[in-house]
Specification:
The structure is a single chain. Helices cover 44% and strands 21% of the residues. The chain is of the alpha+beta class. It has a single domain (3-146), classed as 3-Layer(aba) Sandwich (Trna Endonuclease, Chain: A, domain 1), CATH 3.40.1350. The chain has a four-stranded mixed sheet with strand order 3-4-5-6. The termini are far apart.
Length: 151
């Protein structure tokens, strides 16, 4: 990975974290262990507390910033997000933004409607705006903190 793409990725992570802070008040931080351990991109700042912060701690957030976001790329990124989440017993979340487009957030559909079961297959995901994602996490915080991670 080139320095330029690393900087672009870090900038994207900070940008998305700033949007989450704006909508929820919860500070996310870059996971500096990610390049060494292959983990997800964002974690909750250690000083954050409260039910919404705890809900965000259950999420493995993977950020992508590319020129364009094709269905094939989104499927590839989702598979990566799921793999990383399962390794850490967390819930996968994929955030991405293509040039001149808003951020999009892919989550298992059961994160917003528990009636859909526990699948993390791409066919059972929902794509949300950042605002809707933050609202879903905030309003579902209690359920998220008690949710078993997908196998």
């Amino acid at each position: 990975m080139s320095i330029n793409s690393r900087q672009k990725g870090a900038g994207a992570e900070r940008e998305f974290a700033g949007l989450v802070r704006d909508w929820t008040g919860v500070r996310l931080a870059r996971n500096l262990e990610q390049s060494r351990s292959g983990g997800h991109d964002l974690i909750v700042h250690p000083e954050e507390s409260g039910i919404v912060a705890e809900a965000f701690r259950r999420l493995a957030i993977e950020c992508k910033r590319y020129q364009s976001a094709s269905d094939a790329l989104i499927q590839k990124w989702w598979a990566q997000a799921v793999e990383q989440a399962v390794e850490e017993a967390l819930i996968p979340v994929l955030t991405y933004r293509a040039n001149r487009s808003p951020w999009r957030v892919v989550v298992p559909i059961w994160l917003i409607n528990a009636g859909f079961g526990d699948s993390v297959e791409i066919e059972y995901t929902a794509t949300l705006s950042v605002q809707a994602f933050c609202q879903a996490v905030s309003e579902g915080a209690s359920a998220i903190t008690h949710k078993e991670s997908p196998a």
